[in-house]
Write a structure and sequence with these properties.
- There is one protein chain.
- The chain is mainly alpha-helical and 111 residues long.
- The chain has helices at residues 4-27, 37-58, 64-83, 88-110.
- Helix 1 (4-27) runs antiparallel to helix 4 and helix 3 runs antiparallel to helix 4 (88-110).
- The two termini are 15 Å apart.
């Protein structure tokens, strides 16, 4: 069974992946899709990283510290980009990215 900090990481990663996928889909429906291209690309990268990290945490991977550090870095980049846009979906995604980066950093230090 996963530790409390691992469970928090898994939950934050899953929530972030969901927010990133929703944000990417919503960005593609915006009037100026070209302006949202970096946001969509980072959303897709971040969702994939978070899904991978959640799986690694659930498996108690021996590489979890490094995986979490990488996920935090990706979440930071995605959260920064999404935070630049005023759309509700981008703001929600930025918030989920910040929470996930924080949870991943705790795991990267504690692993």
């Amino acid at each position: 069974m996963a530790s409390e900090s691992a469970r928090e990481c898994i939950d934050a990663c899953n929530a972030c992946a969901d927010a990133c996928n929703a944000c990417a889909a919503a960005c593609l429906k915006e009037d100026d899709v070209k302006m949202m291209a970096r946001c969509v690309a980072l959303d897709m990268d971040c969702a994939a990283a978070c899904q991978f990290t959640a799986g690694a945490a659930a498996r108690s991977s021996e590489l979890l510290g490094a995986i979490c550090a990488t996920c935090a870095e990706i979440c930071d980049a995605c959260g920064e980009e999404c935070g630049k846009h005023r759309h509700d979906h981008c703001q929600a995604c930025a918030q989920a990215c910040r929470r996930c980066a924080e949870a991943c950093r705790k795991m990267s230090v504690g692993s």
